[in-house]
Amino acid sequence: MSCPELEAIYLGDIVQEEAEVSWIMHGDWGPILSAFPKLEHWRVRGVANASSFSCPNLRSLIVTSMTSRQTCQSIAAADLPELEHLELWLGTDDYSGDAQVEDLIPILSGKLFPKLRYLGLRNAQLANEVAEAVATSPILDRIEVLDLSNGMLDDRGGNALLASPAVTKLKRLNLHYNFFSPAVA
Fold first, then answer.
1. For residue 1, is it within any domain?
2. Total count of domains within the chain
3. In what order do the strands lie in the sheet with 85-91?
4. Tens-digit pLDDT profile for residues 167-179
5. Domain of 84?
6. So what's the pLDDT on residue 171?
7. What's 70's domain CATH number?
């Protein structure tokens, strides 16, 4: 079956009551993105890795899973000139989420994805380290929304964000469902 006009795919559209995100196993989704040249929106839920891919029309990329190092590196190397919305659920290494802050550095450099306006680094066990890296990164000069929700962010990461002048330029900062003290909140 050929679908050359396909603009959106949601792989793993399975609700939590049917299967936990860490139970949904996919293979390499990189070739799927390369196979649909008009694809604008890609969302994957479940444990998956992406090999290298190119998707020149992609505007949103959402990985609602336990993001792997390989996937971060593939995204950073991908040809995504139209990307506006990037959301990675980093998870925990106990469930295949082995991405580290150093894997995010190319994304945080601000040199990739010239149209990026939303950056979500969500559901992160290493949320404090992510917040510290983001707080001093050039990407804050370009994005409008930073989403660090649903993670293990506590006062350490919160203080790093509070100390960053660039954070005040954001239109929206989502820190819902983290672990701040009342003083830092």
1. no
2. 1
3. 8-11, 41-45, 60-64, 85-91, 118-124, 145-147, 172-174
4. 999 999 999 999 9
5. 8-174
6. 98
7. 3.80.10.10
